[in-house]
Amino acid sequence: MSRTNFETLLEAGCHFGHLKRKWNPAMAPYIFMEKNGIHIIDLHKTVVKIDEAAEALKNIAKSGRKILFVATKKQAKQVIADKATSVNMPYVIERWPGGMLTNFPTIRKAVKKMAQIDKLSADGTYANLSKREILQISRQRAKLEKNLGSIADLTRLPSALFVVDVLKEQIAVREANRLGIPVFAIVDTNSNPDNVDFVIPANDDANKSIEVILDACCAAIAEGLEERKAERVDAETAAKDGGKAEAQSARVEEEAEAPAEE
Hints:
Radius of gyration: 25 Å
Structural class: alpha/beta
Number of strands: 8
CATH topology of the largest domain: Rossmann fold
Shape: flat
């Protein structure tokens, strides 16, 4: 059963592409027709592509790996933040920090700097600083929080990137391509899908369109996380049962080897 359907996508306006003169010919396989100078996306293909992407995302989440969500355009920011947070995944909704992936150790240093500032605040060091120094540190902390707050817990490179608008986030896509990190993306008719591993052809400007697609993908991620949790519980239960069985077996052997009383 598909995770979404034609009617839901149609109602959300996922079929509206860009003006014909702005199109990227590489998107031709996903275009159904042209109407009033605007390309209309084939939503039957979108349904299939959402299912493919969702299944892959589910497997990544099930394996315990992280998916980094990226959307710095205004209409996608809040949706990405809400959906990524709901499945405990990192996200970038402000300016993409250059080298976020290709120079990851430097980004980690910035995150550690933020943690150090928090430590200064917690251990009372602030009390010995002047008002000016406290103000400077606070501003630095706010700037780091704005750019890196959502990726503070990302201790290693993500296993996948989910992008809204590959045209706007082309630096992020390029970095992921260079490192061999698979890219999942909502791709509109004005964008190039060639650098995307899992293309979801759809309107990447309408808030409702973005939300419907993310709902389906994040539901799959949530399923993967639940299955991982269930498997871990089963493994722990099996280990406990195995330990009890071994202890019981050892006890039986001891009793068998013990000399009978005369």
